[in-house]
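Hi there, hope your week has been kind to you so far. It would help a lot if you went through both lines with me. No rush at all, and the record is pasted right below:

***
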Amino acid sequence: MKNQRSSIWTPLLFALTLAIGLFIGYRLQSNAPLLVSGGNEGVSGNGRVEELLRYIEARYVDAPDTDELYEAAISAVIDELDPHSSYIPAEQLQALNESMEGNFEGIGIEFLVVDDTITVVSTLPGGPSETAGLMPGDQIIMVEDSMVTGVNEFNIDPASLMRGVSNTDVSISVRRPGEPELKGFTITRAPIPVYSVDAAYKLNDKTAYVKINRFSATTYDEFVKALEEQMEKGGAEHLVIDLRDNPGGYLQQATKMLSQLFPQKGELLVYTQGRNSRRVDYKTNGRAFYNIRDVAVLVDEGSASASEILAGAVQDHDRGIIVGRRSFGKGLVQEQYPLSDGSALRLTVARYYTPSGRSIQRSYDEGEEEYRGELNERFDSGELFDGENDSRDSSVIYYTDTGHPVFGGGGITPDYFVPLDTSLNNETFLRLRQEVPAYIFQYVRRHPELKQFKTLDEYIARFQPDLDEIIPGLTARAMVDYEGALEDMPARLRPELSLFFRARLARQLFDGSAFFQVLNEEDPIVIEALRLLEKDDPMAAARAKKGNGL
């Protein structure tokens, strides 16, 4: 019996000892630098990068910066993949996550650096700074006991000074124009929302407008709130969704928004599929809260990813009209994987396809530089001005539900094309316009009569800036920032500069939405979308030959 037990346990003990030995050997190998020499017998491709870096660390003539070597190796690997796979260092990951998750912790101000000084543009309504009494135009001079003027000169990071853990205090001193003494405030930090809906208001009695800057974790909730205010309470029937310059974000936020546009359940909105990813269909949930009639989606060359998912579903199902210029052309899906040092890998795992089956991803076979520079190609070819000569693959035609032809391989082509105004590329105009946000503070101090405008409607109806006063001030600021004299701005651009100034001042006096309400009064894409929505059949009007981007 004893011999029988021994014959049973001996192999088990041997196997256990072998396993422990292998584990200890693995730990020693993984934790110790490589200190051997000789050939490369038995080396497989799987560990070559790690082995190479260990050799360098152990034997290189000078002391290498190991972190830099690893960063360089990672970058080299990522560069061999598609343009949207990326490595995110730990120090950048927090800021990126905050912008996508929809909040951060701080004091709740928006600021500009004006004359090398942190200047408050606005305070978040109900936020810590508004509660404490900070006002637009306040210049932050001290944070705790440290002087914080000379932001650029001393390479100060303003955001890091005021962000921090909720329920902790920060003391700041501000210089308020017109008051001789610094004013001190103690502000308790709190969670600060980062909004993705920039504006929501009615273009006219029947048409609501919603401007979305990204698809973050809170976008759907913000969108539904905007619909409630404008559609249910405001009585609007039609909807304009502005996705221009929206780089995308979370796919699920786009599909949840789309469910508000399609009352029926089970309508295919988009599907994803990859080499190691099975096909996943995203469909409407049948829980549309509002009776939305006609829809217009505004896109341009800066609309990408989730923006194109939304526009593609609307177009393929003939749910509304797409107005503007051809979108960016990003049809790749990324997943984010955390790494042990706090960094992350954002890896492309699948492609997405619109309901008609088209992929709108542009080719990146010529390398990332060519891929990123494709906008210049659109400019040089004249596509941005007449809608023709685009790089879509017209050899493969797809069809919308009603049989209208659409194409993949290069973004979403609008149903109705609106050209880019090339006159706005004038260098003097661009330089003067760039100085407007900082100049606004000086202008407000000189014009106390602006306080008479109690509502935005009153401001829009009555205020017109005097450009003969404003342009010299803008020019003086521009001369500080740029070398060389500025040429005279063409007279035809004076109305454009006046419009931007009025919009930016409205933002300062009222809120962020006011900026778009003023600007959109003369925005050609918004004007065309509104004109088409007023037709008996907006779809037929948009897809007529004249103005048709297809």
Summary: DSSP finds 19 helices and 21 strands in the chain.
